[in-house]
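Translate sequence into C-alpha cells.
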Amino acid sequence: MATTNGHTNGHTTTMPPSASYTRFSDIPPTIDIPVRGEDTEANEAVNLDLTELMDETDELCDLLENENAAKTYWVTIALAYAKQNKIDIAIDILKKGLSALSKVGDGGQRGREDRLSVLAAICWLYLLKCRRAPRVKPTQPLPEGQQEEKTKDHWLHAATSTLNEASRINPSYPPLFLARGTLYLLRSSLQPSKPLSASGPDHSERTETLKQAAKCFDDAYKQSSNKNLLAQLGKAKVLFSLTKYSESLAIYQQVLLLAPDLLDPDPRIGIGCCYWALNHKTLARQAWQRSLDLNPDKNIAANILLALSYLDESSSHPTTSKEFAELYKKAMTEHTQTAFKTSSHHALTCATFGSYFLLRKAWPNVERLARRAIEMTDVNAVASDGWYLLARKEHYAADSGDGTGDWGKAAEYYGKADLARGGEERGMVAAKFGGAQVKCRQGDRDGGRFRLEKLVAGGAGGVGGAVGGQQKSLEALTLLGVLYAEEVFANQIAGGKEDKSGELKKAVGLLEQVRVSWKDPKRKVSPDPAVLLNLARLYERDAPERALACLTEVEKLELADISEDDERLPDEIGDAEEEKRARRELLSPQLLNNLGTLRFEGGKFSEAREDFQTALSACVKMGERDEGIDTDGLVTSISFNLARTYEAEGLGEEAQKIYEGLLGRHPEYVDARARLAFMALQSPDSGIAKKGGEALKSLLDAEPGNLDVRALWAWHLGRTKKRTGNLNEDAEQRVYKETLQRYDKHDRYALVGMGNLHLAVAREMRGGGTDQEKERRSKTYVRAVEFFDKVLALDGTDAWAAQGMGIAVVEDKKDTSAAVQVFSKVRESLTNKGSGGGGGSGVGAGAVYLNLGHVFGEMRQWKKAVENYEKAVTASAHERRDGKPDPVVLGCLGRVWLMRGRQEKSLECFRTSLDLSRQALELQPENVNARFNVAFVQIQLATMLIPLPEAQKSVQDVEDAIRGLEEAIESFGEIAKGPQPPFPRGDLEARANMGKNTMKRQLGQALEKQVEYERKNASRLEEARRRREEEIRKREAERVRAEDERRKAEAEIKAKREEMDRENQEDIRRRLEDEKRREEADYTTDAETGEKRKRERRVREKRVKRKKKGVEDEGDTDGGVIGEGTDAEGGGKSARRSRATSGTEGTGTGTEAEGGGRRRKKRKLERKGQVGRGSKFKSSEMVEDSDEDDGAHGTQGNGTSVVGDDGEMAVDGGDEEEAVSRPARKKAARVLDDDEDEDGEVPMAVDGEE
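Result follows.
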C-alpha cells in the first residue's frame, strides 16, 4: 500500500512539529501495486521502483487499469514522474487514471472525490508547466529533434478547463480554492499594467485579476481553519503585486514564524523583496543571504537577488574605484554565474548576465540571453529588462557605424521595454531616456527634447529605475540641458537674430541642477567635465566669472586624473610648483587657452600669461608624443593671445616680437598685422604713428571686406580728422557709410558710429538760432536715434546703442528723467565686459556712470553727479592698461565741481575743480583742451574771488588767485597761437586781455583791501584768541577739579563699602558662633554609644478651665480675693490662656503635686470691667496658688484627655510651640486652677498692659 502523498492542501487538521516542507518529500522510493491471483483469496503485489521510471508507461497504466487500482496509486506514480521533471508523462498517467476511474462507474461520494483529486493534480501540473513555459513563442531556432514549446497562455487555458471540470463536480472542494488563486496570479502576470493616472482608482484588468486571486487565497485559508501556509504565501504575493509591500511583508513574516523550516517556497525571499521595495536594502540582503545559507544548493532566487543587490550598491561608486570592482565581481562571479549554472533558463538570471555581455559587446550572447529572459519570464519587469538589453545592443551597434545596428529597432525595443513596465507616466526611465537618445541621433531633436521634458517633469529617479521618484534623472537633466545649449550655440555661430534667452536660461538651470547634485553625498555622483564645459560656454558672455569657475573646476578634475606614476611626467621633478607646472602641461591646450582668455577678459593678465605659456608647452609636448597631430593652428591662436597679454601688460616689445614671428610663419595673418599697426598708432613718436597709419591703410586696401580692419581705420580717422559740421565731408562718416552700403548693412559698429557722429554734429549746432536751425538740429538727433534703434533691433543688449538713445533724449528733448531711467537700466544689466559697439571695444561700466554724471549735472543734482563721475574715474582706471584714470572723465568731474561752486559760491568747490583739471592735464600734457580747462577754472576762480567779502577769504587765497590768473593769461595766449584752438582765437585773446587789464587790477585792489582788513582785525583776532585760550584754560581747570572730586567721591564710596563688608563678615561670624552654641545646646552625648544625638523635648499639656459645681451667680463679685480651692465665676465661659512663656515642660501626670515640694506662685487677677467701674488702676490683689487639688484633675500620658472627679473633660491643647505662637488677647481676668500650672509655668491674664 502506498503512503499518502503528503497532507492534502486544505485538509490538514494538525501540523506536525517536525513536518518536512521539501517538495515531493512524501513520494516513497517504491510502491507495491496489488494484483489478483488465480486464488481469489490470496492477493499478490507488483513492486515498482519509483526512483527508476521508464518513459514508456502503457504497460504500467494497463496494469493499474486492469487491476482497478485505487486513485492513490495513479496519483503517487504520476507525482513520482513529476519529481523527476517528467511533467508530460505525469499528466498522461493522470489522464489515463481519470479515464479508468470513470469507467469503474462509482458515482458515489468516494468516486467523486477520487475524480476531484485526480483533476486537482492535473490542474497543478498544468500550472507547473505554465510556470516553466515561455511567455511568447521562441524566436531562436530550436535544437534538432526538439519540439516547439507551448506558451504560458496554452497551459493557462488547459488549467482553466480542468479547474472548471472539477468545479462542476464540487465547487466547494477545498484544494480548488488554492489552485484557482494560483491560476489568477499567473494570469495577471501576462496582463499589462495600467498607466499611472493622477486621479481615480486602478480598475485595470490586471488589478481585478489580482483581487480575484486574493479572494481565492482567503477562501482557501479559511477552509483550512487558518492553517494553509501556501494560501498565505499566495496572498502575500498578490499584495506585493498590488504594491502593498507592508501588508505583504507582515504575511511573509507570519508564515516564517509558523514554518521556519519552509525552504521551497522560501518566505525569506518574499521578505527580502518587500524590504527592498520599502527601501530597506540592508535588511533585504540579510533575508536573501539567510535563505542562501539555509539552502545553498540550487537556490537560484537567493543568488540572483543577492547579485542584484550588490550591483545596486556598486552603482553608487565611481566605475574606476576599487569598491566598484569588488562589488561588481562579487555580483557576477559569485552569485550570477552560480545561478546561471543552476538554471540557464531562469529569466532574471539571463537578464542580469546579459548586461555583463552587453558591456563586453558580445552581441550574440546578449541577443540569446535577452530573448530567453523575454520568453521565459512571468514578470513584466524582467521582460522589460530583456527588451532593454536588445535596445541597447542595437543602439551600441548602430552608434559604432559598422552597419550591424538599426536605429529603428533600437527605438522599437526601447518602446517595448517602457511599455512592459507600464509606459506613459510609469514605465522604465532608462528606456524612455534611450528612446530620447535615438530620436536625437535620428535628427529629431524636437522629439527627443519633448521626451526628455516629460521625463524630467515626471521626477524620475535613476536611469535604471521607474518614474515617480523624488530625485530626477541626472542623465535626463544633462542631455536636455545639452540640447538647449547646442541650440543656443548654433544661433550664436550663425549670427542669428532670434532671441534664445529662454533656451539659454533653461540650459543653465538644467545643467546647474546636475552640478548641485554632485555635492549630495547620498547620490555619490562624480562630476562630469562635459557639463562644466557647456556651462562655461553658456556663461561666457553674460557671466565670465562663472565661466572661469567652471573651467577651473574642469582643470582640477583633469589634474586629479593624472596619476603619480604617469609615464608622461618627467623623471625628476623639483618642488611642488614645478610639479604643478609639469602636470598642467599634460592638460588639454584648448582648456588652458580658454582659461587664459577668460582671465585676460577679467584683467588678470599675469595669470592669463601663465596659462598661455603653459598651453604652448602643452602643444609642443602633444606634438612630440604624436607626430601625426597638427598643432600649428593651436600654436598660432595661443601665441596671438599671449602677445595680446604682453600688450595689455605694457610689454610692447615682447608683443611685437610674437606678432612679427606669427607674420613670419603666416604673412596673411590679418589680426597680427592689425595689432602691429594699432601699436604703432599708440606710439608717442609721431614718425612711428605715421607709419602705423600707413600700415593700416595698406592693410585696408588688401582686406577691404574685413569689418574689424574697417572699424580700426574708422577709429583712427576719428582721432586724427579735422572737425567739421558737414557730415558729408567727414572722413570717418564715409568709411561707415561704405561699410553699410557695400559690405554689411547690419554691421553694428558702423551703425553705432554713424549715430555717434550725428550726435556730435547736433551737439555743435547752437540751440538759440532760428526755427529752421532748431528743426535741423532736432532732425539730426532723430537721425542718430534711428541708427541706435536699428542696432537695438539687431541686438537688444548693445549698451552703446542704448546709451546713445539716452544721450539723444536728454540733449534734444531735455527729458532728463527718461535718460536717467535708460542709463540706470544699462548700468544694472551691464557687466564690465560690455557687449560691443562703436569705439572698438565693449562698453564698460565707466561709460554708463559718465553719462549718468552728465545727466545729474544737467539736473543740478551735484551730489549724485559727483558720485557717478567718481565711479566713472575708478572704472576707467580699471579699464585702462596703465591703471590711470581717464583724463576726459577727470575733466568732467572738475567741470561739475566748477558748476557747483558757481551756484553755491563755494571757494572750496573751485579749488577741487582746479585740482582735478590739473590732474587731467598731467595725464595728457600736450592736450590743448585739458590746458584750456585749467586756465578757464583759474579765470573763474579769480572772478568769483573778487567780489567775495573779506571775511570769507584770506590774503593767501587772493595771492593764489593772482598767480593762477597770470598762468591763465599765459595759457590763453599760447592756446590762441596754437594750430587747432578749441575756440576762436579772438575769443581767447579777448579773455586774456580782460585778465591783464581788468581782473589783474581788481585782484590787486582786493589784495590791498584784504591786507588792510586783516591788519585792522589782527588786534581783535589776538584778543579773541587770548580769550579763547583763557576759556580753554578755565575749562581745563574745571575739568581737573571735577575729576578730583569724582575720584574723592569714589574713594569715600569704596571705604564705605569696605566698612560694610567688614560688618557683614563680623555679623556672619557671630551668626556662625550662635549656630554653634545652639547646636551644642540641642545635641547631647549618648552615655551608652558616645555619639551625639538631638535632645528630646517633652510636650506641654494644654488644659481647659473646669467649672465648679454649684456656682451659678454671675457678677456677684466685682473683684476681690478669691480663696483657695474656689473658682471665679465668669458666666460659664472657658478660661483662655494668655501668651505662655518658655519653661520646663512636665508630663502632666500630677507627680509634682504629690511630692509636696512645689513652690507657691502669685498671680495678678482682675475681673472684667473692674478697672472701668472702680478705678483706672489694675487690681493689686495677689492670689496664691494652692497645691491641694493638684492631683485631682489632669491628663494621662502625652496629653490624652481623662475625666476628672467632677465629670468635666480636660482636652489636650497641643505642644509648646503652638502656645508660643499665639498672640496675647485682651480678655477678662480669670482665676487659674492649680492644676493648670503643674509644670511651673505662670501664664498671665492681661487686660491692657502688664
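Note: The longest helix spans residues 985-1082.
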